[in-house]
Specification:
The protein has 466 residues and is an alpha/beta fold. The protein has a domain at 4-234: Amidase signature (AS) domain (Amidase signature (AS) enzymes, Alpha-Beta Complex). The protein contains 15 helices and 13 strands. The chain has helices spanning 4-13, 18-36, 44-56, 100-107, 150-157, 174-180, 214-224, 264-279, 295-310, 329-337, 342-355, 364-381, 407-411, 418-423, 452-462, and strands at 39-42, 69-73, 111-116, 136-137, 140-144, 163-168, 183-186, 206-211, 251-255, 283-287, 387-391, 427-434, 440-447. The strands form two sheets. It has an eleven-stranded mixed sheet with strand order 1-3-2-6-8-7-12-13-11-9-10. A hairpin with a 2-residue loop joins strand 4 and strand 5. The radius of gyration is 21 Å and the shape is globular. It starts with a helix and ends with a helix.
């Protein structure tokens, strides 16, 4: 599979057609998806018709993503197409408008080739919570792809597409990117419009690209980012613009108090990455993120509270599955809401409890105060460094069904990713090395607000160096 930028360059130059590019992707999907379950639906005929339209344009008028096939996570609106959030709750629902990111992809002449599988309503760290079955890791079919954007990451890792979009509420782009050995970014909160994204936790959600390498990721973010007056959180945000950034001028912090007791393979990769960057002139500095250890419990209270509010609309009366055999109003609600899977129900109940009048002061409001303290930690840290280096995940990809009975262990998969969502800062996961089972290790670079260029430069400096 060609890199995304190579496909676009060749389509714009007339070396290949968009139709050829789409046919190649469809062939790979047909071959590999039955065993991976990365896609829930393929838009084959539509993709070829779209490719023909791109081919009919004069070469000079073809867009930045001309002929690039994109996997769209199944929680983003694509007009006239099913959006199920991998849940029985939304069976049969068809989007009535395009998400802003979809509009921008189409305007750049990308081809949306299918809906990528995910954890139901983006709630999970393994992509085992989908109502339509788990996504398997292309590098080892006995292991998880990560979640919640596991279908998107697996599709890129398997070469079915060169670009996929995911959403990241607590690590849902970066964690599967790490498990599958690809590049994924959670941009600065508000850098990319959330209009048309099914809300999980509105103060934390962010859309971002997953690609095989950093340069493709930069291209994708430059297309989908920027102001959207339909999303107040990014109304004043400028689009991301790639700029040359010399890593030799950067200082990187390592939060020793936050990344203790590392898995030996991951610790070794982190040490080697520091050596590679130091050889390129990067300066390192030990820093402290003293409250980052509280990010995970604060996150689960805030995220579940917002989820219980956002998902209240899916009651079968306004939106969602409607039971046909209910006896009365109470039975209607019980049977309608039963369409949610166990993890979604668990988080809704946790969030509803945290927001209750008897508990909000002790749980939700206190968690929000902890989030404010964590943001201040990052602001203080970035006053002395340009970026922060951590692992993306505590482990490499684990076995399917390995953690389903140990939810605490499963939730800890997001240990190093959650702080970026709480602080609203950008963070990129990039592959660097393999463990003893030949599984990819992902390292993560945090940046200050709207400084994606710096973290991209550091991630690019690590590419191919392990």
């Amino acid at each position: 599979m060609m890199k995304a930028r190579e496909t676009a360059q060749k389509v714009r130059a007339g070396v290949i057609t968009a139709t050829q590019a789409a046919q190649d992707c469809l062939a790979q999907i047909e071959k590999l998806n039955p065993q991976l379950n990365a896609f829930l639906e393929i838009f084959g005929e539509e993709a070829l018709a779209r490719a023909a339209q791109i081919d009919a344009k004069p070469a000079a008028q073809r867009g930045a993503l001309a002929g690039i096939c994109v996997a769209l996570k199944d929680n983003m609106e694509f007009a006239g197409h099913t959006m199920s959030c991998a849940s029985r709750m939304l069976a049969g629902y068809k989007a009535v408008y395009n998400a802003t990111v979809v509009e921008r992809l189409l305007a750049a002449d990308a081809i949306i080739i299918g809906r990528a599988n995910m954890d139901e309503f983006a709630m999970g760290s393994s992509n085992e919570n989908s109502a339509f079955g788990p996504v398997k890791n292309p590098l080892d079919l006995t292991r998880v792809s990560g979640g919640s954007s596991g279908g998107s990451a697996a599709a890129v890792a398997a070469g079915m597409v060169s670009l996929a979009l995911g959403s990241d509420t607590g690590g849902s782009i970066r964690q599967p990117a790490a498990f599958c050995g690809v590049v994924g970014i959670k941009p600065t909160y508000g850098r990319v419009s959330r209009r048309g994204l099914a809300a999980f936790a509105s103060s934390l959600d962010q859309i971002g690209p997953i690609t095989a390498d950093v340069e493709d990721n930069i291209l994708a973010l430059s297309v989908i980012s920027g102001e959207d007056k339909n999303d107040s959180t990014c109304a004043a945000r400028a689009p991301f613009a790639a700029e040359n950034c010399e890593v030799k001028n950067l200082t990187v912090g390592v939060p020793q108090d936050f990344i203790k007791d590392l898995n030996p393979a991951i610790a070794s990769a982190l040490g080697k990455a520091k050596g590679v960057l130091q050889n390129k002139g990067v300066k390192f500095k030990d820093i402290s993120l003293p409250h980052a250890k509280y990010a995970l419990p604060a996150y689960y209270i805030v995220a579940c509270s917002e989820a219980s509010s956002n998902l209240a609309r899916f009651d079968g009366l306004r939106y969602g599955h409607k039971a046909q055999d209910a006896k009365d109003l109470e039975d209607t609600y019980l049977k309608n809401r039963a369409a949610f899977g166990p993890e979604v129900k668990r988080r809704i109940m946790l969030g509803t409890y945290s927001l209750g009048s008897a508990h909000a002061q002790d749980y939700y409001l206190k968690a929000k105060k902890v989030c404010d303290v964590i943001r201040r930690d990052f602001e203080l840290a970035f006053s002395g460094v340009d970026a922060i280096l951590t692992p993306a995940t505590p482990t490499t990809a684990f076995k399917l069904n390995d953690k389903n009975k140990d939810l605490l262990s499963l939730y800890l998969s997001d240990l190093y990713t959650v702080p970026a969502n709480i602080a609203g800062v950008p963070a990129v996961s990039a592959p660097f090395g393999r463990d003893g089972d030949n599984l990819p290790i992902g390292l993560q670079v945090y940046g200050n607000y709207c400084e994606e260029n710096k973290i991209y430069a550091l991630a690019a400096a690590l590419e191919g160096q392990w």
